[in-house]
Design a protein that fits this description.
The protein is α/β, with parallel strands linked by helices. It folds into two domains: 2-125 and 217-288, Rossmann fold (3-Layer(aba) Sandwich); 127-211, no CATH class. The protein has ten helices and ten strands. The strands form two sheets. An eight-stranded mixed sheet has the order 1-2-4-3-5-6-9-10, with helices on both faces. The protein has a two-stranded antiparallel sheet with strand order 7-8. A hairpin with a 2-residue loop joins strand 1 and strand 2. It is globular, with a radius of gyration of 18 Å.
Length: 291
């Protein structure tokens, strides 16, 4: 659905009309991604008791406009959106960068629960990744999947050549290729590329600079010590093999948290659990929100 906020159109994805009698789960995508991550959730398992909504920030998905350059600005955008939709006391879940937004949001509005998925704090972004993300979404998604994906799900491959599942415009199966999103290298495993395509396509945005802008917003974000001390009703989900956002028991956010009860580590899983192990991930989400 399109929602107007102060003369600006914002897109919110939901599988059904919002039921004011149900609790709402707000899903906030990670850097460079959009509402399409919600399509990897088992919507039917939670739809009887919850509305599930996923937000497109400006410049992402179906929300037009220049990208917001800070976590604080993205949080303010969410607050205005929830107010417009008349949604109060939601469950807020954020992946990676979206986890930082969810964290800040939970400090500014009343939430029932906060779920940080594969989110480090502070979330430092290396120069190598920033270089890859600068105007080349294909190179950036290559980096993300190389270091972020541990378990690649099986996919039905309908032909031996590269070019199924919407990626036929590449037109070749090996070497350097050009696309609307930059350049990439396909060396010897086009089948692997096809299996990764459902994830990689979520990074494809209208503006090539989107991912770079999002990543630059992550590193400077901080909350105060008082805010950390007041954190409550918060859960953490990590991939046990995640190289981009590793579980750190010394993280400031965890100092007042019962790690045994509030931290959930998915073994043999990288940075994208909803893609790598959707069945186990959805089961864990249901457990966390007590379904």
């Amino acid at each position: 659905m399109q929602v107007e906020i102060e003369g600006h159109k914002a897109y919110v994805h939901t599988e059904k009309d919002i039921d004011p009698n149900l609790e709402s789960i707000i899903l906030i995508p990670g850097a460079g991604m959009d509402h399409r991550i919600a399509k990897m959730f088992d919507y039917n398992s939670i739809s009887k008791k919850h509305n599930l909504l996923s937000i497109d920030f400006p410049g992402h998905g179906f929300t037009p406009g220049p990208a917001l350059t800070s976590i604080e600005a993205q949080t303010d955008f969410c607050i205005k959106l929830l107010k417009k939709l008349n949604i109060g006391h939601p469950i807020v879940a954020g992946h990676s960068m979206g986890g930082l937004v969810a964290l800040k949001l939970s400090l500014l509005i009343a939430v029932k629960q906060t779920i940080l998925i594969n989110t480090s704090y502070p979330l430092a972004v290396g120069e190598l990744l920033l270089d890859h993300a600068k105007g080349n979404l294909d190179q950036a998604s290559e980096f993300f999947t190389k270091y972020g994906v541990f378990n690649i799900p099986e996919a039905e491959i309908k032909s031996k050549g590269f070019g199924v599942m919407g990626s036929g415009f590449y037109g070749r199966s090996k070497g350097t290729i050009k696309s609307p999103y930059g350049t990439k290298n396909i060396e010897s495993d086009p089948e692997k590329e096809i299996r990764l395509y459902p994830l990689k396509k979520i990074f494809n945005q209208t503006y090539k600079e989107i991912l770079s802008i999002d990543l630059k917003a992550c590193s400077p974000f901080r909350i105060t010590e008082d805010e950390i001390n007041n954190l409550s009703k918060i859960h953490f989900i990590y991939g046990g093999k995640d190289k981009l956002a590793r579980f750190n028991p010394e993280c400031d956010l965890l100092k007042n948290i019962d790690i045994d009860k509030k931290v959930h580590i998915m073994p043999e899983t990288g940075h994208f659990p909803f893609f790598e192990r959707p069945v186990e991930f959805n089961s864990l989400i249901r457990k966390v929100i007590n379904l």
